[in-house]
From TrEMBL:
This is LacI family transcriptional regulator. CDD domains: HTH_LacI (cd01392). One of its GO terms (molecular function) is DNA-binding transcription factor activity. Keywords: DNA-binding, Repressor, Transcription, Transcription regulation. Transmembrane segments: none annotated. PANTHER family: HTH-TYPE TRANSCRIPTIONAL REPRESSOR CYTR (PTHR30146:SF151), LACI-RELATED TRANSCRIPTIONAL REPRESSOR (PTHR30146). InterPro entries: HTH_LacI, LacI/GalR-like_sensor, Lambda_DNA-bd_dom_sf, Peripla_BP_I. Gene3D superfamilies: 3.40.50.2300, lambda repressor-like DNA-binding domains (1.10.260.40). Residues 8-62 form the HTH lacI-type domain.
Amino acid sequence: MKPPEKKATIADVARMAGVSTATVSRSLSAPGIVSAETRARVTAAVSQTGYIANSAAQTLRRRRADAVVVAVPDLGNTFFSEIISGIETLARERGVAVLVSDVPRGGNAGQRLSDLLDAGRADGALVLHGALLPGAAAKGRHWKLVTVSEQLPASGEEEATFAHVGIDNTAAAADATRFLIGLGHRQILHLTGPTNSILTSQRAAGYQQAMQEAGLATALASRGGDFTIASGYKAARALLATGDLPDALFCANDEMAIGAMNALVGGGISVPGDISVIGLDDIAFAAWSNPPLTTIRQPRRTIGQLAMKELLAQIDGAPPSAPVHVAHDIIERNSTRLRRTS
């Protein structure tokens, strides 16, 4: 009986290519970080030895990492989990790894993307973060990149045209405000997000637009938050201290709305008896807050899937698509009611 042929090992490839086993590994997993001459030698050695020929040779020919990076501003925020789930669904179908990078607002998001994309460790990026480093947008013209939920703000000559998938945040905020106006509320305070987020400016613009359309420009009022439960709680406590509560509160996201309701109820204020509260996003906790939160629903899993589909198309050679705005819905729960007239 003929003995079975010995399978080629990474050491065999390294000896034939005249490089280290570590260099072979890098050539197979992240070809962008080794020289073209070294890649060619490793490719030839893989072919001659038959070492994992189907997967390794294919990866080298395509010069792909078969991985994408997802840049998230706050992994602790439950809003992002369902988007990432949608991304993962398509990634599994394509055999693509998902590298999640937690990049806090104000952090070095641009540098992190450069490290991964320029080094060839990822084929493209899904950016759920609207605040890249200065210069990153211009450099990003050469990357396969899709912005998700948050668009990158314009930055003059550095502005780049990226594909984008998300809701129309200005329209969603305007609809939330109009919903409160439709309930008879006139003194509507807007609790904003952090100043360095494009979502903050877009949602504030929607609030202002709806108030002005209703002839309530003189009633415009806002307080600052940072998208966290704690900031919503703090803002509502400050309102309580003034003794001058609005009819209704439109919070720029659900976490702040939940924090605000906690402070209001704890201060003896009835929600929605004394004040209506509406959020935006429809995170999982919104339906289980006390009271359950009226909000604007983003179809986050769908957004993640559409964004991943767009990125995979770009990786396969397609040009960036025009921005895609996914429809949002008003979800009415128990935190809002008709304004009392007496």
